[in-house]
Amino acid sequence: MFTSTLRAIKFAFQKFGRNFWLSIITVSMLVFTLLTINILIVLQQVTTKAITFAEDRIEVSVYFYPNSTIEQVSDAAVYLQGLPQVRDVAVITSDEALERFKLRHASDEVILASLSEVDGNPFGATLVVKAHSADDFPFILDALDNPKFRDDIREKDFSSYESIIDRIRSTTDRIQLFGIALSGIFLLIAILIVFNTVRIGIFIHREEIGIMKLVGASNAFVRAPFLIECILYSLLAVTITALIVFPSVATMDPKFSLFFNGETGGVLTYFSKNWYWIFGIQFIVMTIINMLATMVAMRKYLKV
Amino acid sequence: MIHFKNVSKTYPPNIVGIRNINLHIRPGEFVSIVGQSGTGKSTLAKMMFAEERPTSGEIAVGGWDITNIREHDVPLLRRQIGVVFQDFKLLSQKTVSENVAFALEVAGVSNRRIREVVPQVLKIVNLSDKGDRYPRQLSGGEAQRVVVARSLVHRPKILVADEPTGNLDTIHTREIIDLLKKINEFGTTVVLVTHNREVVNALKKRVITLDDGQITSDVEEGRYRL
Predict the structure, then answer these.
(1) What confidence score (pLDDT) does residue B115 get?
(2) Looking at the complex, does the CB of residue A7 fall below 8 Å from at least one CB of chain B?
(3) What's the mean pLDDT in A233-251?
(4) Is A304's pLDDT higher than 60?
(5) How far apart are CA A206 and CA A303, in angstroms?
(6) pLDDT for B126-152, tens place per residue?
(7) For the ranges A185-199, A277-291, B88-102, which has the lowest average pLDDT?
(8) Running DSSP on this structure, what letter comes out for residue A161?
């Protein structure tokens, strides 16, 4: 059994070598299919990162009147922190707000001069509230209408990134749909090419197959090299894809930092951590599909 | 050794290959099957190693009823029957030794055993010094001797030779027939399909004559008569 398996592997390699250019075309088509699938994975990762990045920046700034006391502001902060929808509450005191304003307008003497005209600190304290999700903000805004704080609050400023997130989602959904369709087309072409490669392989090796049968080769032994060859195609295609994807992602990933405030897109990390899953599943699925195409071709053309 | 009982073969739509053949070949016999082209000689021979299946009747080889032999049992049968064809059926990209070894490789025989058997059979067919040559570097007679060597690797009890001398000149024909006689002397049953009158007459062995798919004569120490 072991000897026969080794020989079937040897015959598979011989077949691959003898039909070298045909094998190369088959593997190339499989690589195109896998590359499209990997581009979709990259896109999925970048989209997730972009949405998380945008969601992180959604916040409500709650401006208090200058005459509100720090205790009133702290009470409101504690109340908000107790809400399960709230992720973080930052308190900016009236003094900090004044300092930030001065710093922001340090080069504008007119504003600074007009500020000195005002008697005392015109700024009230501010609460910067972040939620776990964009959907939580309506609830938080309603919660701030609590009579306990309502009269101390001058203004609530909701800086919405929702429209940006929606745009990211709809754009990437469209790209993904296109990518899935493209993958499907490539996959179909790949299946047809594998089928045709096996058909041509059977035709080229018909004499050898005939002799094998004549001298007592079992049906399984005649078929095995074709099946092993399609495993070889999958293995080679996945390896080449990985060799293209990793350097490409490594080059691309730092460039995403321009969009994510210095953070990388996390794509390289994702691929580095999950490479065995990503490429393992691609190998298994590609092998199963190739084997099915091979078996259909053998059933049709290989009369053993 | 080989039994045919009321065996007929009809090809679609209604072409008769052989009809109502009754035949018994004993172990160790040398039998020539003769007849004009298209009389069913090759069909009869191919049925012995299940290359063709009968439309009706029963076939047994070595006590094994192969009338309705299952697909996965065919390789086992073929490892017990050596087959030699007129067109050699050698792999051009393999050397003589590799061609002979191929029959053992596909049967899962170990490399060690292959290294033992191949030189032995090449010695029997007198090609020990040509193991590294490719088929294109051999004469017709040598190529046919390689085929005989390949058919012997499984030590078959039966050797079926279908027109083995059809492509050979007189000298090479004699070489091959002498080789088949030698193999027969070792105890192997030889079935020779031929339309070579000189060969059959020189053999002085059993001759079965076919005409229009039927046995018209079956004579011990027969001669070629049509």
Answers:
(1) 93
(2) yes
(3) 93
(4) no
(5) 10
(6) 899 999 999 999 988 899 999 999 999
(7) A185-199
(8) -
pLDDT digits (tens, 9 = 90+) for A130-159: 888 777 877 888 888 888 878 888 887 776
Measured distance CA(A265)–CA(B47) in Å, rounded: 70
Whole-number Å distance between alpha carbons of A139 and A131 = 10
Domain ranges in chain A are 2-54+164-301, 59-158
| pLDDT tens-digit readout, A153-162 | 888 777 656 6
CATH code for the domain defined by A59-158: 3.30.70.3040
Q: Which long-range contacts (C-beta less than 8 Å, at least 24 apart) are formed by A178-184?
A: A179/A36, A179/A39, A179/A40, A179/A43, A180/A40, A182/A36, A183/A33, A183/A36, A183/A37, A183/A40
Task: Note whether A216 contacts B72, CB cutoff 8 Å.
Answer: no
Q: Is the pLDDT of residue A83 over 80?
A: yes
Where are any strands of DSSP class E within A56-173? 59-64, 86-92, 126-131, 153-159
Domain B2-219, classified CATH 3.40.50.300, yes or no: yes
CB < 8 Å from B in window 270-299 of A: none
Please provide residue A18's backbone torsions phi and psi, each rounded to the nearest 5 degrees: -70, -30
C-alpha separations of B41 from A15, B44, B202, B223 in Å: 36, 5, 20, 16
Determine whether the interchain pair A216/B103 forms a contact, defined as Cβ–Cβ distance below 8 Å: yes
Chain A residues touching B109 at Cβ < 8 A: 3
Helix (H, G, I), strand (E, B) or coil at A65: coil
Strands (E), chain B: 2-11, 15-25, 30-34, 56-61, 64-65, 81-85, 158-162, 189-194, 206-211, 214-219
Contact of A212 with B106, CB cutoff 8 Å: yes
